[in-house]
Amino acid sequence: MLSPEGNFAERSSGAVTDDKLRKAVRKTVDRLRDLRRADELPDPKTLERRAKAQAVREHSVAELPQLLAQFTENCERRGGHVHRATDAHEACSIALSILRSHGAQRVVKSKSMVTEEIGLNEALEHAGLEVTETDLGEWIIQLAGEKPSHIILPAIHKTRHDVQALFEAESGMTLSSDTARLCAHARVRLREKFLQADAGVSGVNFAVAATGSIALFTNEGNGRLVTTLPRVHIAFLGMERIVLDLDSLAAMAEVLPRSATGQKLTSYFSIITGPRRADEVDGPDHLHVIVVDNGRSAVWKDPEFRDVLRCIRCAACLNVCPVYAQVGGHSYGGTYPGPIGAVLTPLLRPEERSANELAEASTLCAACTEACPVGIPLHEMLVRLRAREQKEHPRRLERLALRVAFRLLRSPRAAVIPRVLRLAASGTGTALLLKKLVPPLERWQRARSLPPAPARTFRALWQELEMEEHHAH
Amino acid sequence: MRTDSLRNSQLAEQFSAALRAVGGEVRMARDAIAAQEHLNAVLAESGVQHLVHHAVDTLAPLSPHELGAGISAHGPRGLSRIDHRDLCASADAGLTGALVGIAATGTLVLAAGRDTPRSTSLLPPLHIALLHSQRIVPDLASSLRLFSANALPSQLVHITGPSRTGDIEHDLTTGVHGPARLLVILLDPNSESSA
Ligand code: SF4
Questions:
Q1: Is A295 left (phi over 0), alpha (psi -120 to 50) or beta?
Q2: In the predicted model, is pLDDT for residue A449 greater than 50?
Q3: ipTM of the predicted assembly exceeds 0.90
Q4: Residues in chain B closer than 8 A to A180 (CB atoms)
Q5: Ligand 1 atom 3: residue of nearest CA
Q6: Would you state the pLDDT for residue A399?
Q7: Is the pLDDT of residue A465 over 90?
Q8: How confident is the prediction for chain B on average, in pLDDT?
Q9: Which residues are CB-neighbours of A43 under 8 A, at least 6 positions away?
Q10: Each residue of A430-448: b (16+ CB within 10 Å) or e?
Q11: Cα–Cα distances in Å, from A333 out to A3, A110, A208, A354?
Q12: Size of interface A-B (CB pairs under 8 A)
């Protein structure tokens, strides 16, 4: 599922030097982080909410097979159909055969990460169906022919002028770049799509085993439209996104919006149990839930990483991550960006070598672990992934380089290093020459400026301090 | 669900504050007459000509038959799926009666059913909901406990404020898909009727 354009280093260096992108991403993560902080500083209430949520998710993961069986039974008892898909291909084929059996041509979708993960849109379009993303951000991304860059706000890297241009190209109309007008335009265009749609596709935030329900959290209301207007509703459920009962669901509703957007509750929170009843005048006639495994069973069987299945995709770990803030979501290549992506992508795609390098994209500052409302030890998992990767594919050159560096730094000759760096930062002709001569320096400086070098070197300072120490005693 | 009326009023206050904080509007009504006056005033102020509503008995004591002159009003009964959908899609406002209110978050709980279709509170640009103060509970967990696991409606929707998006440059914009305005007429016998 990694995008074909290069490896992490290439994608991220593009992202880091793209100033507009970097500013947009920075603005978003700062904003979301602050929103969350205002509400989420670990006051006792927050801690209590998180402890409850963590307990619910721990239980879900521990009892996953039983909960899935229970959910299936209850959902079908209420008239829904539950399908199990072992991989992306099977998940798409199941959806396609359901759509074909209803003669569906036009599909409206609400935001769903798992459908991104399995490449559903491509599969349906390939089969000749029309698929429209209806979450405003997702629609913008679809019109631009791109991939989301953030779990909660997929189009954060687009300005309203970009959006205006995309909407104008789609509609052939001349529009203003005013946000409210752009939204009003989207309402009209997408409302047409909703009214014409033969089927609606959604994700599932949580399935409820005891009731056979599926729960969706949205702010725009497109999730409600997708599950209300078309005759057929297909919901994709990541295999692990299940909780025991309504009490557990309430506990999750207390943390998901808070961690995702700083809201106490999203504008809409729907609990759907079966298709419409015979006497109802709206709602889908048919409800299909496709449970997607796609590598999750293997993660579940791995005691070192099973806990990652607690994840509720709130994106809190992205918003606090210094690496994500610098490189943005596209650099991660897979469906899931940020720390959760760095852990999850290599676990779900162990065969893809380039996924494993994602664990390197971390400073191990543990901000992600601290932010996670369900207590996933993300940074520890990153370390474990690195260790595993190192064991399976040791990088001799890297180890050699480190050994050389170690020797060099211990030798008295290391005193020359700060002098070289100071020269490099000076901006003189020699500095430019130096950068050319030392390629790593040049690459490192492309997106950074060296801080001005202090007047005295650390070594000199250290010696002085040592002498002062001596005098003091 | 029944607690003493003072407690109801406290919950009503908490509900109103929470709903206002997320951009919802609240009008307090002490009795049936005040509630109907609020409804008629809102419809007039907002220039509503076509109203869709849930079945009359779910709206008591409001009456969709006593609206101002020139306003058409349609309930769900006797309509085909397509006719009902088209009426909702072209209506200026939808009127519903909330099953439960949640004080902590300012949330309305609506259950889909024969008399209470989903589209009424979803397709029109303005959603007006009646809420009785004695139906307000403290939080989501207490609300969900009111429903028995094997008698859940086909859809239980929790509505907290108007439809909103921040997808374009974080500019908070309402009404991108659902109603741009949510207005609650809160019927509380202890309240001072207010706008
Ligand atoms: S790992 Fe934790 S913080 Fe990150 S998205 Fe998942 S639940 Fe949220």
A1: left
A2: no
A3: yes
A4: 171, 173
A5: A372
A6: 62
A7: no
A8: 92
A9: none
A10: ebeebbeeeeebeeeeebe
A11: 5, 22, 31, 9
A12: 183
Range of the domain at B28: 2-163+172-187
Domains of chain A, CATH where assigned: 40-294 (3.40.50.10420), 417-472 (no CATH)
Q: What is the DSSP letter of B152?
A: -
What ligand 1 atom has the least distance to the C-alpha of A368? 3
Measured distance CA(A41)–CA(B40) in Å, rounded: 44
Q: Min CA distance, A392 vs chain B (Å)? A: 42
In chain B, how many domains are there? Answer: 1
Q: Which of residues 161-190 of B touch A (CB under 8 A)?
A: 161-171, 173, 175-179
> What are the backbone angles phi and psi of residue A413, rounded to the nearest 5°?
-70, -15
Looking from the CA of residue A318, the nearest atom of ligand 1 is 4
Query: Are B158 and A265 within 8 A, CB to CB?
Result: yes
* Residue B82 in domain: yes
Q: How far apart are CA B67 and CA A151, in angstroms?
A: 45
Read off the amino acid at residue A372: C
Q: How many CA atoms lie within 13 A of A305 on its CB side?
A: 24
Interface test with B, best of A48, A110, A143, A280 (most B CBs within 10 A): A280
Angle value at C-alpha B90, between B88 and B92, nearest 5 degrees: 85
Hey, how many other C-beta atoms are within 10 angstroms of the C-beta on A317? 28
Judging by DSSP bridges, how do beta strands B173-174 and B164-165 pair with one another?
Answer: antiparallel
A247: Cα within 13 Å, side-chain hemisphere: 5
Query: Could you tell me which chain B residue has the CA closest to the CA of A223?
Result: B177
Residue B84 included in any domain: yes
pTM of the model: 0.84
Determine which helix (DSSP H) or strand (DSSP E) holds A50, and give its type and residue range: helix A44-62
CATH of the domain at B142: 3.40.50.10420
Report chain B residues whose CB lies below 8 A from the CB of A280: 112-114, 117, 154
In this structure, which residue's CA is closest to atom 4 in ligand 1? A317
Rounded mean pLDDT, A111-124: 94
